[in-house]
Write a structure and sequence with these properties.
- By secondary structure, the protein is an alpha/beta fold.
- Helix content is about 20%, strand content about 25%.
- It is built from four helices and eleven strands.
- The protein is globular, with a radius of gyration of 17 Å.
- The two termini are about 15 Å apart.
- The chain binds guanosine-5'-monophosphate.
- The site of guanosine-5'-monophosphate has 20 residues, from helix 1, strand 7, helix 4 and strand 10.
- Guanosine-5'-monophosphate binds near residues 140 and 192.
Length: about 220
């Protein structure tokens, strides 16, 4: 179930909960064993590892020479992915982190604007930049981030995402590498959270609907 935000974009209610008003773990009835809250394992640990290795090889080949490649990790969801991916890239890399918020504080509707909570620490002037994202949904966040970074005079800006939900894309993006295309389900694990929980799961799983039903107005 989705609803229309003021600017006409279809916003996943959970995404609002995710980057806007955040459910606190203790209030949403999460189990003590996080695995009990998963209805389905979508991508298991071995599959992720194999795909990340392949992505690393492709990325290594795509940047010949030994000029510095700057991995820009979009926090916090890409933390786990970037840790594995950077070790699969066999060249000279530097890592920088950014944190963004898609929605205004205290608002469950998308404002359509992206706020930068943490900017780059180093310069990307003249360098190759690879944005590392956990999941692309509407594409609005990355659309903003890509043009923001392009304004800092890098040699190139490319995108790698672990997960992609193409069904919900609003902003068209040139995504250079995708780990897995997934259906329109709310997923957690391997860095992705709900209310800051489940990031440490080694697989990508679908969160049980009953855990967020009340947040999206279901009984
Ligand atoms: P968008 O592409 O819509 O601008 O936003 C992408 C962001 O929404 C992701 O970085 C992530 O924080 C959040 N998001 C979208 N779909 C999911 C999902 O299925 N699970 C989780 N945990 N976060 C999601």
């Amino acid at each position: 179930s989705t609803r229309r935000a003021a600017h006409g974009a279809t916003v996943h209610p959970l995404q609002s909960a995710h980057r806007g008003v955040r459910a606190k773990g203790g209030e949403m009835g999460a189990s003590k064993n996080p695995h009990d809250d998963i209805s389905e394992v979508l991508i298991d640990e071995a599959k992720i590892a194999a795909r990340v290795k392949a992505l690393g090889a492709e990325i290594t080949a795509a940047y010949p020479g030994n000029d510095e490649l700057v991995l820009v990790s979009v926090l916090k969801g890409s933390l786990v992915f970037v840790g594995d991916l950077m070790r699969a890239i066999d060249r000279n890399v530097r890592i920088d982190v950014m944190e963004v918020s898609s929605y205004g504080g205290g608002n469950t509707e998308s404002s359509g604007t992206v706020r930068i909570l943490k900017d780059l620490s180093g310069s990307i002037d003249g360098l190759d930049v690879l944005i590392v994202e956990d999941i692309i949904d509407t594409g609005l966040t990355l659309n903003y981030l890509t043009s923001y970074l392009a304004g800092k005079n890098p040699r190139s800006v490319r995108i790698v995402t672990l997960l992609d939900k193409p069904a919900r894309r609003i902003a068209e993006l040139p995504v250079d590498w995708t780990g897995f295309e997934i259906p329109d389900k709310f997923v957690v694990g391997y860095g992705l959270d709900f209310g800051e929980h489940y990031r440490n799961l080694r697989y990508v799983g679908v969160l049980k609907r009953e855990l967020y039903a009340s947040l999206i107005g279901e009984a």
